[in-house]
Write a structure and sequence with these properties.
The protein is an alpha+beta fold. It is built from four helices and six strands, in the order H-E-E-E-E-H-E-E-H-H. It has a domain of about 110 residues: Yope Regulator, Chain: A, CATH 3.30.1460.
Length: about 160
């Protein structure tokens, strides 16, 4: 596991008022998670928070910048993570409303994802691999009880 640098630790401290926030190393940066959902990125000592169509205008109006990376194919890729306003970069109380927007965006994104489609019985039968079944056991045939030879009685009486 990668060792957290001081900026990542500082950012997690700033986000403490939000609740239990964790950072996980990923792709040369860090993913910021709340409640098991990714709400932000930390790349090159910059925090980017998750946005969507609802929250992106707020980040833009506040002077935020999107996270952009080079795809390696000569085209930059803009992701849905934006920097919070500069005045929130070192003030936990100013950062909190922006972090809450990121949590809301992450929850909305999770709700948009279709749930895993359950297969109906016929679909399962088409895709299921047949299992080898053990041969059925035949009931044991009853053998006639062996007759015991009668005990010889002696005719002698004492």
């Amino acid at each position: 596991m990668a060792r957290m640098d001081s900026y990542v630790e500082y950012t997690l401290e700033l986000l403490e008022p939000l609740g239990p926030v964790q950072a996980r190393a990923m792709f040369g940066g860090w993913g910021v998670y709340y409640g098991g959902r990714m709400i932000g990125l930390i790349v090159e000592d910059r925090l980017y928070l998750k946005t969507d169509d609802t929250t992106r205008p707020d980040f833009e109006a506040a002077g935020g910048e999107p996270f952009v990376y080079d795809s390696g194919k000569g085209k930059p890729v803009t992701m849905s993570y934006w920097t919070p306003p500069a005045d929130a970069s070192d003030d936990a109380h100013a950062l909190l409303p922006w972090a809450r927007r990121a949590v809301d965006a992450a929850l909305r994104a999770a709700q948009k994802k279709p749930a895993a489609k359950k297969k109906s019985a016929p679909e399962k039968a088409k895709t299921a691999t047949p299992k080898k079944q053990a041969p059925a056991k035949k009931p044991a045939a009853k053998k006639p009880a062996a007759k015991k030879p009668a005990a010889k009685r002696s005719s002698r009486r004492a």
